[in-house]
Design goal:
This protein is an all-alpha fold. It has 11 helices and no strands.
Length: 255
């Protein structure tokens, strides 16, 4: 294990990325409340959205300990181009097939990252990752179960999933967009490189998806990049404005 110490700005960048991804995808998933195809799924997406926002808060709290603003201020009072979320989590919910495929791809990536972070040399993050990994396993199980069920269901459900996967997979590669801090974090033992995490994710997702009869668009998948580096997608500004509507009316209000 490395004896180097990761720079504070590298740790802050990582924590911000983790928090922003969970916050914005949690907000997106909450849009299924009252709109799910089944009451069970309506409740499930709402519950997972709540968990994701709770995980975001935990990452923001670690970021605050490193000098970032208080969690609510950091989450809601930044300019849109200051968010470090990948384009994948910001995209609209689309139909249920897209949201389900995004759920599976994202939560598989998050599970692999959390598992790696349980061995992080940055003790506060390792401790948090151990806690979140226990909670997150139910999200991952839910995504795998429903993707498999629909892939092996009717012709229509399989075709809808395949179409969603072809759209979502290249976007999901943006989860592993490298940053200027990638190598420093790996050398200090905070987390593996993004390339290493992506390789693990590709292996796991391709094995599972091909095993249930879906075609993974790996050969010509061009990653959607820029979100980690302050180049937001067209969907970020409307999402942030909606998400921050209440606090922007009176940022000094005490609830």
């Amino acid at each position: 294990m490395s004896t180097q110490t990761a720079p504070a700005d590298a740790l802050l960048d990582l924590l911000t990325r983790l928090a922003d991804d969970d916050l914005l995808l949690g907000h997106r998933n909450s849009e299924w409340t009252g709109m799910g195809p089944l009451l069970e799924e309506d409740i499930a997406f709402a519950s997972m959205a709540q968990d994701q926002i709770g995980h975001a808060l935990a990452f923001y709290e670690l970021a605050h300990a490193l000098g970032a603003p208080a969690p609510d201020d950091y989450a809601f009072l930044r300019e849109p181009n200051a968010y470090k979320a990948c384009h994948f989590v910001v995209a609209p919910i689309g139909d249920y097939a897209f949201s389900l495929v995004r759920h599976y791809l994202y939560d598989t990536a998050k599970a692999l990252r959390l598992q790696a972070l349980t061995r992080s040399t940055y003790a506060p993050l390792a401790e948090l990752a151990q806690k979140l990994a226990r909670e997150h396993k139910y999200h991952q199980l839910h995504g795998r179960t429903w993707v498999q069920q629909l892939a092996q269901g009717s012709d229509e459900s399989r075709l809808r999933l395949q179409s969603a996967l072809s759209e979502a997979y290249p976007m999901a590669l943006g989860l592993f967009e490298p940053t200027p801090f990638t190598e420093a974090l790996a050398q200090a033992g905070v987390q593996p490189t993004e390339r290493s995490l992506e390789t693990q994710w590709r292996t796991e997702t391709e094995s599972f998806l091909s095993g249930i009869g879906l075609s993974v668009p790996t050969a010509d998948a061009t990653p959607y990049l820029g979100g980690r580096r302050g180049y937001p997608s067209e969907y970020l500004l409307p999402l942030v404005l909606e998400m921050t509507e209440v606090i922007r009316q009176d940022p000094q209000a005490v609830w």
